[in-house]
Design brief:
The complex is a heterodimer of chains A (165) and B (120). Chain A is an alpha+beta fold and 165 residues long. Chain A has a four-stranded antiparallel β-sheet with strand order 1-2-4-3. The longest helix of chain A is centred in the first third of the chain and has 20 residues. Chain A is globular. The two termini of chain A are 30 Å apart. Chain B has 120 residues and is an alpha+beta fold. A five-stranded antiparallel β-sheet of chain B has the order 2-1-5-4-3, with helices on both faces. The chains are: A alpha+beta (165), B alpha+beta (120). The interface between A and B is medium-sized, with 17 and 18 residues.
């Protein structure tokens, strides 16, 4: 599934934006719920993909360093900030990831122009897959949820909240 | 000690035929639930599906210029599934058709929805 071929990022962005627009048209606010299903369905494929590019997902020591490294290795963004949870709580540990200048930024720009909330962000699935794999080493049945903070402008970083329970 | 919202949900499970009640965020996550017995389901998948169904129902209403849906009623051979919009969340109720009265379920949802919104 991860043969090394080059696909123009513009084509990829048009496809991602197209799916997002179609889901928004048919499901409206319900489109955000698809994110939760997708984490579950594609999480393992993303783990395989990361391994294929040489990212050792089984050997993550520090999410604050390793998440930006994965984004860099995949060529998605060179500027990713990770805020780790302060303390555990009964509502789950919250990780905040800020992604600047992602290759998928044109999707956010296009969707913002159309007034559509960007809920199917490829970046968020990648982050969720890495965090889930790391947490499950110590907590086997950990559940990972994603929330994407609405951007008031596409120029802002993409802010993803990952909640682990 | 249970929270006010939990108390309302548990009270609702005493309505004849009610199997389970869920409060689901519009991001597709279960926030609260109460069940009248054991329920074996994939909660994450069900929450996402209910959110998607309500989203599609709302979009259809907009497209046909029918306004916003009040209570979405799904009828299966042995069950009813009712979905009520609480604004930022959804209230979903699963009931056994053989024991429940549809009108009573709708009445309970409409009666309890403002109370639930008030304590969420």
């Amino acid at each position: 599934m991860s043969e090394k071929i080059t696909i123009p990022s513009g084509l990829l962005n048009v496809i991602v934006a197209g799916y997002q627009i179609a889901l928004n048209k048919t499901l409206g606010a319900g489109a955000a719920a698809m994110t939760q299903i997708l984490i579950k369905e594609i999480g393992e494929y993303l783990e395989d993909l990361l391994e294929d590019i040489g990212f050792e997902i089984h050997d993550i020591k520090d999410l604050k360093e390793d998440i930006p490294k994965a984004f860099k290795m995949l060529g998605i963004s060179d500027n990713v900030e990770v805020e780790l949870p302060q303390n555990g709580s009964n509502t789950g540990d919250k990780y905040i990831i800020k992604i600047h200048d992602s290759i998928f930024k044109p999707v956010a720009v296009l969707l913002a122009k159309k007034g559509i909330k960007f809920s199917l962000s490829p970046e968020s699935f990648l982050v969720a897959a890495i965090i889930r794999k790391t947490i499950r080493k110590v907590k086997k049945d950990a559940q990972v949820k994603i929330k994407i903070k609405p951007q008031s402008s596409p120029e802002e970083p993409l802010i993803i909240e990952v909640i682990v329970r | 000690m249970s929270s006010p919202v939990q108390r309302i949900l548990v009270d609702m499970t005493r309505t004849p035929g009610v199997i389970a009640i869920f409060i689901i965020s519009k991001e597709g996550l279960i926030k609260e639930k109460a069940t009248a017995g054991t329920l074996t389901i994939d909660e994450d998948a069900v929450a996402a599906m209910i959110t998607a169904v309500q989203g599609a129902t709302a979009q259809l209403g907009e497209e046909l210029e029918l306004g916003k849906p009040e209570t979405t009623t799904l009828e299966y051979p042995g069950h009813y599934l009712l979905i009520h919009d609480l604004g930022e969340n959804l209230l979903a109720l699963l009931a056994d058709k053989s024991k429940a009265v549809l009108g009573r379920l709708r009445y309970e949802l409409k009666k309890q929805a403002p109370r639930i919104s008030g304590v969420l």
